[in-house]
Amino acid sequence: MTSNAGGPDLNVAQFLRSLLRRPAALAFLAIITMIAGYVGWSSTSSVYQSTAVAVVIPPGSGSLDAGLNPLINLNTNMAQLTAVVATALQSDGGHRAAKEAGGTGNFTVNTTFGDQAVFAQLTSQLVIVADGTTPDSARSAAAALVEYARSCLNKIQLDSAVPVENNALLIPSVEPSQAVTLPTSAVRAAAAYALGALLGGVALLLLFDAARELSRRWRRHGAHAAENQWPAADDDDEGASDAEATDLDGASRSDAHC
Predict the structure, then answer these.
(1) What gap in Å lies between CA 101 and CA 141, rounded to an integer?
(2) H-type helices in 116-185, by residue range?
(3) Could you tell me if 44 and 184 are in contact, meaning their C-beta atoms sit under 8 angstroms apart?
């Protein structure tokens, strides 16, 4: 701990040690930490996810020619078209469709197959995972996204002037699944809120102590300055008294001489 003529300096280490001897300050920090932790815990809400899968198939449905069976013609051309549909699905319209269906508006769409990036390849299926605040809202959002993907595919072909009979189709292959709950981070949120409140409380107490120390020094300095003025005033009074005595003595001598 450093010191100067005005008294000991306030430093953080001294302040932290002093907290252990201040029950009121410790109680204050404990209360705000618990309140902030509870707020952080209660602020997190459960998120549910539902998965739906749709497939983009080429034209040929209904044909008696076995070679035109669309399910055996899912080639790379259809995979590329599916990737285009996935890009359109992730636009603002897709998020809006999911939100209007009751979901949070957040979703992911995947058109690749394979667990590792090295082996992943484009496919003609869309794997859509939609978020919702309830199981039903997550499933509704997933179903709405499948319908929006179908409308995106139809619009792309219409804008390309493709005859309707030659249109590729989007069909659901897996209906929206039962929603599952995502692991929430309530503990993490509570810890973050509590830590922030603790640091804020310590900073507030530190500022309070610093302001109190400055006020104490200011009062001490004022009292010291006042004490230094009193001797000067006494010296002035003594000088005035000596001058008056000298004048009176001189007047007495003048009268005697006369």
Answers:
(1) 5
(2) 135-159
(3) yes
Helix (H), strand (E), coil (C) string for 85-128: HHHHHCCHHHHHHHHHCCEEEEEEEEEEECCCCCCCEEEEEEEE
CB atoms within 10 A of CB 183: 7
pTM: 0.59
Residue 74 structure tokens: 């899912």
Give the pLDDT confidence of 117-170 residue by residue, as tens digits.
556 688 999 999 999 989 999 999 999 999 999 999 999 999 999 999 899 999
- Tokens 């139809």 locate to 154
Residues 215 and 244: their CA atoms lie apart, in Å, by 44
In degrees to the nearest 10, what's the CA dihedral of 125, 126, 127, 132?
-160
Taking only Cα atoms into account, the Rg of the chain, rounded to an integer number of angstroms, comes to 42
